Amino acid sequence: MSLLDLKGITKSFGAIHALNGVDLSIAPGEAVGLMGDNGAGKSTLMKIIAGNFPPTRGQILIEGEAVLFHKPIDARNSGIEIVYQDLALCDNLTAAANVFLGREERTGIWPFRKLDHAAMTKRAGELFAELKSETRPRDLVRQMSGGQRQAVAIARTRLSDPKLVLMDEPTAAISVRQVAEVLNLIKRLKDTGHAVILVSHRMPDVFDVCDRVAVLRRGTKVADKPITQTTPEEVTGLIIGAIEAA
Question: Which residue ranges does the record assign to the ABC transporter domain (predicted)?
């Protein structure tokens, strides 16, 4: 059974049609690369899956059950987490504090409850170990590399043990070595049974970690095929319109 099924997802903003009848499915432990030029509808589709706004038309199914997300917490409660391109981290806090931001653990009896820093540091360390990241819970985020920051953002999604992790351009504007770190993190998510939708402009990244690639052009899905059955040249042609569909 598919983990996520999108059926005929359409989104309009007034006279602008951002998405036109998009179908997409993903299974547990699978990674799907979502590609397309700027304005193709990738971010809109991700925001619909993440619960930022509902589709104008169409249906979202989680493990075969139809769902309707009114806000991001609805998607999170259905097992969907998103890592945005800007990561939304607080530079002045430690890695552990960022992992638990908004979901802090507390100890003691009300009204004398206080933050349980030891428990949060321990759990953050376990999450970084599971991801095989060198990030340390007590390190300040402002002192971290781009790859380490991604590890913090991904560890934060793991707190709720999601079924699906959405990643928006995770390897943009970081070094080659840090790109390798992030791709290894994605592979670790797959190995632990998490599904991943990866939005990226970087063809090598998609072909390295994804099982399938879906291409959007002007809000319409023009391809959805296994990585083993396509090439970077074909995907590029689909993105720019030199190839109509595949």
Answer: 4-243
